User: What shape does this take?
Amino acid sequence: MNKLWVIAFKEIRTRFTDRNLLLIMIAAPLAISTIIGLAFGGLGRTTSPIRDIPVAVINNDQPSANGTSFGIMLADLLTVGQLPAGTSSTLSACTQHPSQSSGGTVEGSLTLSNLINGISFDETVAQGLVANQTIAAPAGSPDSPEYLEAAARAAIDKGAYTAVVIIPADFSAALTSLADPRQSLTSTSIEVYGNAGQGLSAGIVRSVVDSITAQMISGNIAIGATMKEVATQQPALLASASSSDISKLFVCAFSPGNDLIQLADVPVQAAPTSVAGAILVTFGSAQALFFALFTGQNGILSMYEERKNWTLQRILISPTPRWAILGGKLVGVLVSVIFQLLALVFALTIVGSLIEGHLAFI
Amino acid sequence: MDIMIETKDLTKTYRSNGSLVEAVKGIDLTVGKGEIFSLLGPNGSGKTTTISMISGLMEPTRGDAFIGGYSITHQPLQAKRLLGVVPQEIALYPTLNARQNLEFFGRMYGLSGKDLTHRVDAMLDFVELSDRQFDRIETYSGGMKRRINIAAGLLHDPQVIYMDEPTVGIDPQSRRRILDTVKQLREQRGMTVLYTTHLMEEAQELSDRVGIIDHGEIIALGTPGDLIQQVGEQDRLIFKVGHAVVGSEMLEKIRTSVEGITQARFDPPGEEGENKTNISGLLIISAKRGRKALPFILHLVEEAGIEIESVEVHEPDLEAVFLHLTGRALRD
Assistant: This one.
């Protein structure tokens, strides 16, 4: 049994005195994890790098018969980040959902105004782009919708914006037709023209537009269903009310940001809050395990190496039972792997703490 | 003399491509206490297989080997305690220092505590590397590595030491030191040495007895002198005679008037054969005792008025014996 421990100790000693092996065991995973953590974690920056996506908005929407303009609502959400002034007064009456759920707090969330930097793309903006030669002057009259749309698309192609959102003239009419059972249903489409070179950001803009319009549609469908019920039970009440009045009552149902069900981020206690730290934890621990496998493999291969160098034969020629040689090897490799993992966790904790500026356990 | 190594009908058979190959064919061998015995053989002769079976690395198919009376197959731990091995390879851990290496191999032989410390110190002194004991092996020169390699085999003070070509790839000074070490082991400690080498002059200088193995069999066994005499090899005397021509009458006179001469011939310069590139003629004489015949030949040649430029005496050695017995040079 004594010889088993002697061989195990020799295994650990040879492994931790081999500088090349130490490079693979400790230095390589540590360096790779640190580089990846810094590269993808943005040097400890605590916010997402995706923000202020430049978006041009062309609102061609005509208010519906009852005066409601969903186009203005969508355009304001994209450019100002909130609903138009008239709507927001009604919105203030809505029950505000707390930014806290039973499971945790919503932390580090990004508002629409932070995410999207939208501008209303009108004649002045188009003329300005033509004047500073960012784009060539499109054909047609400068005050025509076609001129504006062509100018916006050219600006996208030149990289001035990530995407242009073109709200069609019948946008409000189409949505109102959903809410009022007395109108026939019409369909329309919003055009999101994105820059192919900034696919991720353009995709985000498209998702935002999808999300807002989906909420508007679901709100109007809810109103339509309710009004149908009212028409059955209280026809007189429906006759005296306009769809605009009902829309205002139901504004909470389709106003973006007032979802009845919200998903809250529930941060795990003691988890790092920075992206760099998070990447170090996930990638660093994965690297540590990955390189620990290498050490295990190297330990098994060292049997072959020892045979080649004749050190194994030298041990076999000595009065040492074979089970002690094999057992000592296995114990030595196992302990080396555990030491390696501990050393890596310790080193990554130091690196993580240096990046974070405070003690951050990996 | 006490017998330290003994093999009885030691046989190893392999199965290769469906047929049985007998690598070692029933070797019977005895090596006495304090004897230096060299086992010589070309590559593939069965030399390594024989040594591997004697040292317990390989199980014999038939027969047995005994170290100090202990069977290597039935009492391996007792037999191995008496045996030290110095392999041809530098069987050391390069990232550990000399002391750490010796301590590890000492523990493998059951040494510990003060006994281990004392033995390691003694071995480092013996190979004169005490001052470098804390340096990593990878920083040592070839000769120094060889000396630590020898020290690791001697740590447990074995009664039998097997040395496999311990002088390969080192400078002449280190080689001389190792050969002196081998002699010391026998003279000072009475150790039995089993030695293998490719260098015949080493075997001739060190060995009390030599065994030549080929095709798995011992084909010659005895002292170097006995083996040379057994094969009847003769001395060759080569006289460089410049532009002089040695006629057949003169050759006949040398052959008949000097005792022990078996052959005398003259090779003119530029002739086919060994004198093709020489500008002098060569008088080549084969004799049983060349050095004894030399003054008589010189006298006869001077009388004939032939001027001699130089004389070379080639005595037979183990290389010639080996060549004669196996038909191959040792390195083949």
Summary: DSSP finds 15 helices and four strands in chain A.
